[in-house]
Specification:
This protein is mostly beta strands. It has a domain at 16-203 and 281-311: Glycosyl hydrolase domain, family 43 (Tachylectin-2, Chain A), CATH 2.115.10. The protein is built from no helices and 21 strands. Strands 5, 6, 7, 8 and 9 form a 5-stranded antiparallel beta sheet that branches. The chain has a 5-stranded mixed beta sheet with strand order 14-18-17-16-15, with no helix packed on it. It is globular and about 50 Å long. The structure holds beta-L-arabinofuranose (FUB). Residues 18-19, 34, 50, 87-88, 138-139, 156, 226-227, 275, 277 line the site of beta-L-arabinofuranose.
Length: 328
């Protein structure tokens, strides 16, 4: 793409992209999206229509520069443990190395999270031979904190299989909690120094309301569904995520990277298409929300396009709600 990037416009149009994880590496914005394929698959709650096979890395010298597609960075054929469905990835930098974290179904059809590494932020990435021991479900997001500790946040309902791990083991026919019970939270695990394993077993994050009561499973406007992202603003940790069935990006805050997090409000109102997925990054003193919608394909849920827009905080640290098409 040679045209300059524009807010709220597809970053690239020659391929379908989704689930953008944005980071500033080497002074540029690097975006790690899913790569949606141009095929017709039956849509269902299991997410079979999201049948992606590889990752491309995108970059921007600046928010009004042309977006560069660095080409294939990792393909499922090169990941020994993975069978299919390369879903939302994230990247991190530590040990002079760039790490790409990604979910995929293993040979038994169970979602696991893998890691691949590269000396360059644009890849190509070399995968580890096996998935991260003890990993499960989808949508890894990695925060490398100011003290150099790295945390992985992950988990997704329905096709992402989080309901099936409530006992700590995979139970294929497990259902989610009753509507009046606390919702399932995302998981967090500190990563080992080499970024290849979990230091401890993942723990569940609690998301509570202003009175300290857990958000309930039936509260679909606020409960966690998938797509976690954690960023820091003025010493506070912001956990943002998709509410899935109500199609919002919402957020909760905490003084502790492992929570509990207190629910605050909506960052992004629904976009065109069923899924919504985002990341938040600071670049040259401004904050940006990277997100996707299905506008490029005229609304096909599994053919999405990555976009960005500026994000603003109020004086009290709350985030101003973004209406992606200007409609309030
Ligand atoms: O792209 C496949 C899945 O759709 C992601 O893993 C979810 O977050 C949703 O965006």
């Amino acid at each position: 793409m040679t045209k300059p990037a524009q807010p709220n416009e597809p970053l690239v149009t020659h391929i379908y992209t989704a689930d953008p994880s944005a980071h500033v590496f080497e002074g540029k914005l690097y975006i790690y999206p899913s790569h949606d394929l141009d095929h017709e698959k039956q849509s269902n709650d299991n997410g079979d229509q999201y049948d992606m096979e590889d990752y491309h890395v995108l970059s921007l010298e600046d928010v009004n520069a042309p977006c560069i597609d660095h080409g294939e960075a990792l393909h499922v054929r090169d990941i020994p443990w993975a069978k299919q469905q390369l879903w939302a990835p994230d990247a991190a930098y530590k040990n002079n190395t760039y790490y790409l974290f990604f979910p995929a179904r293993d040979k038994a059809g169970i979602f696991r999270i893998g890691v691949a590494s590269s000396p360059s932020p644009s890849g190509p990435f070399t995968p580890q031979p096996d998935y991260i021991p003890g990993s499960f479900s989808i949508d890894p997001a990695v925060l490398v904190d100011e003290d150099d500790k790295a945390y992985m946040y992950f988990g997704g309902l329905w096709g992402g299989q989080l309901e099936k791990w409530q006992t700590g083991a995979f139970v294929p026919d497990a259902e989610g909690p009753a509507e009046s019970a606390p919702a399932l939270g995302p998981r967090v695990a500190e990563l080992s120094g080499d970024m290849l394993t979990f230091k401890q077993s993942p723990q569940e994050i609690s998301i509570v309301d202003e009175d300290g009561n857990p958000i309930l499973a039936g509260d679909e406007d606020r409960r966690y569904f998938e797509g976690p992202w954690v960023h820091k603003y003025k010493d506070e940790y912001y956990l943002s995520y998709s509410t899935g069935s109500t199609h919002r990006i919402v957020y909760a805050t905490s003084k502790d990277p492992k929570g509990p997090f207190v629910f605050k409000g909506t960052i992004l109102t629904p976009v065109i298409g069923w899924t919504t997925h985002h990341s938040i990054v600071q670049f040259n003193d401004k904050w940006y929300l990277f997100y996707h919608d299905s506008s490029l394909s005229g609304g096909a849920d599994n053919k999405r396009c990555v976009k960005f827009t500026e994000l603003a905080y109020n004086d009290d640290g709350t985030i101003q709600t973004i209406h992606p098409y200007g409609n309030k």
